[in-house]
Amino acid sequence: MVVERAPVLHEIGAGLTIWPNGVNALQALGVTRPKTPFVLRSLKILTREGQVLLERDCSGFEARYGAPALPIHRAELHQLLHSTVGQDAEIILGAEVTGFEQSAEGVRVQASGGRSWTAGLLVGADGIHSRVREQLLGDGPPRYTGVSVWRGVTTAEAARVPRGEAHTYLGDGGEFGFMPMLDGRVYWYATREAPAGQGAEHGSHQADLRLRYGGWPDPIGELLDLTPEPEILRTDIYDRPPGQRWTVGRVTLLGDAAHPMTPHASQGACQALEDAVALGRSLQAGAGTAAALVSYERRRLPRANTFVRISSQTGRSITIRNPAARWLRDQALRRLPRSLLQRQMDAQFRLPD
């Protein structure tokens, strides 16, 4: 049974990248990946003037890791998951979980509208502001990183995006990046420091972004011009310090509820998929529900926390404003040994057993 806060399942959000570890996790969950001739050839990190600092060759991912990178819309990922569980899956919409009570026999879950259900276990996958986590761990709200992200999706061909290339441009205290998706569209994102909850400063998000990124290389201006204002999403970025637990008895956490991380390592969705694989394998081992959830936590906590740290460290390096410090960062990226980069990718993109 899935209890979902949204009243209907519809297209929401923007793009995301499922890297090889995430694609292999999807396949382990029985999800058939989209059949497409699209191949992400390279990922480039550049200065705001367009000088290449670092380039990752992505064309050999299938041979090395058993899966490619799949940049897709969030809604398409939802559709893949929904089609895999089938029409018989019990999905209860419009129900926000408000609390739970657990005993040695099971868990009673309460939701909005006075509804409740009883199950053998509860997996809180209710996001960074998880109500399940709030009751389970009582460790307070997530922390605002001081950075916001703007995202949008538009047509790749109209924006003249280089075929098969993803770019991230680093500037004064922020970044702008884009990634072509499987369906011929492209999603873009921009991050910078901003007060939490701040509205548009110059009448619209599009106007703010045009001023902020005016003079940055093409196709940044085109991407902004081609994205209608209502389709530009602004989200404040929150995370938590690496945690020491996310399981108590018959209740556990998954994804952002367990290990929220900033988007700078591009691993949030992939780590949630890895959670799902590890949780399934632990439950199938037949050691009992509580023992299985402890096993799941032990399997996942060290690796998930690694990405929490990487994401946070990368985010801090992107928001550097001091010119000398930015120069040092750029030089470090330019001089990063290819062998070290390959080891980093191997550690990230291989799905653990």
Cα end-to-end separation:
27 Å
CATH class categorisation of the domain at 124-142 and 243-321: Alpha Beta
> Which word captures the global form?
globular
- The overall pLDDT average reads 92
- Number of alpha- plus pi-helical segments: 10
Going by CATH, what is the homologous superfamily of the domain at 124-142 and 243-321? FAD/NAD(P)-binding domain
The helix/strand class is alpha+beta
CATH topology of the domain at 124-142 and 243-321: FAD/NAD(P)-binding domain
Number of strands: 17
Characteristics of this structure?
seven-stranded mixed β-sheet, 353 residues, three-stranded antiparallel β-sheet, FAD/NAD(P)-binding domain, D-Amino Acid Oxidase, Chain A, domain 2
What does it look like?
The chain is an alpha+beta fold. The model has no long low-confidence stretch (mean pLDDT 92). Helices cover 34% and strands 25% of the residues. Helix 1 runs parallel beside helix 7, helix 5 packs antiparallel against helix 6 and helix 7 runs antiparallel to helix 8.
In short:
The protein is an alpha+beta fold. The protein contains 10 helices and 17 strands.
Question: Which helices and strands occur, and which strands form pairs?
Answer:
Layout lengths: L1 E2 L11 E4 L1 H9 L13 E6 L4 E6 L3 H5 L4 E4 H12 L5 E2 L4 E6 L4 E5 L4 E4 L2 E3 L6 H6 L6 E13 L9 E6 L3 E7 L4 E9 L11 H9 L6 H7 L6 E7 L7 E2 L2 E3 L14 H17 L4 H30 L4 H12 L3 H12 L4
Parallel strand pairs: 1-6, 3-12, 10-17
Antiparallel strand pairs: 2-5, 3-4, 7-8, 8-9, 11-14, 11-15, 12-13, 13-14, 16-17
Helix pairs in contact: 1-7, 5-6, 7-8
